[in-house]
Sequence to fold (421 residues):
Amino acid sequence: MRRAIPREVTAKLWGAAAGRCQFSGCAQSLTIDPISKRRANFAERAHVYPIGKQGPRATKSASTRRVNDIGNLMLLCRPHHRLVDQLPSDFPSHMLIAMKNQHENRVRLATNFRTMTPSNVLYVRVPIGEKRLSMLDSEAIWTALASDRHHPATDSPLVIDLAAIETNDSEGDFWSSCEKTVRRKVESAFSPHGSFEHADHISLFALAPMPILMTLGKILGDTRAVSVYQYDRFESRWRWKVDGDPEPAKFSYRIHKRRVVNQATIALAISLSAEIDMNLVAKAMPRSDYHTVRFGTTKPGYSVIRGEPDLVSFHRGMRDCLNDIEARFGTDCEIHVFPALPASAATQFGRLLLPKASPAMRIYDHNAKNGGFHPALWLVDRRTGALQPRCGRVLADTNRSRSRTTLVSLGSTRRCVASSE
Fold:
């Protein structure tokens, strides 16, 4: 005779499953029919180990005394209840227990609102060359946000989808069309859920060309709280390399000032994910009489930004570098930026800028097919007359001045100030 499952066990099972099917990948609500939208109880209580010795997944060592304990029960929809019982060899007990535990852990994370705050999840998809990023799955969102003590403020991510653009980053009109579309879609993505200007917190998941990430960072600004997540290409996940609080990475910069009589023009090479080839910078610069600023770390690579402390250290070091450039060359200078940055740092760079106060700033993009760096977009545009790049030529200056470099300790960065002789 089958023993009835106690009512208190059923109530606990419903609570642990949040009224949804615990079969991996289903999570369907068990209180509403997906077709008719009628409400009813569609849940079935499934046993991992069976009541009888002949049931699915039966073993000689399995205890029958605790067969109706919550640890041996799953809440499933009818199709998946039948599936796991009719094909027990395909769904062994350890697999079902893993499904149950994963589902219940996800419910605990999603409902722990006393210690979590809401965040608007913003997901940006942009073509990178011929590659297109697929839709972000909810599991990745929950895992990443839970580590930052946030939960999604909306049922689904706010998506800025540029995958339909029929150009790629080797074509001339790619950058202008992307920048305009990003600005427009940031506003439209928030409009069904409230104003973008009043968003208290944003969690950003973005993988795009660096000029677009910098533009996005400028749009988000630094007046609101933003959590920027880093995509791990090797492990295909949106999590930091190092959990917790690692020792922050150290960044430094050097300013090589030359004797020039024209308006101050600066080539800013940022070497984080790779070392910038200064010969390629010289080919791309629109004029030969420019100063050079090199910002980087001792060992550039994809894992240089391992966690939030590294991103904060980069933010501070880059801010000091830009402030130093303004102090030495004035706000009327023109900065040409050649970046090799992880996506999170590229976005953070854009957030540093003050569009009404920062010097003119042009971002360059590296395209191997086109032979090096090419101008992409003006992140801050103060031109009275646009400078046209002369690509493909090395504009040599045989009268380069010697420079003297002084290192000044500055917290987690080393500040380098150069003076010409």
Remarks:
- The chain is about 25% helix and 25% strand.
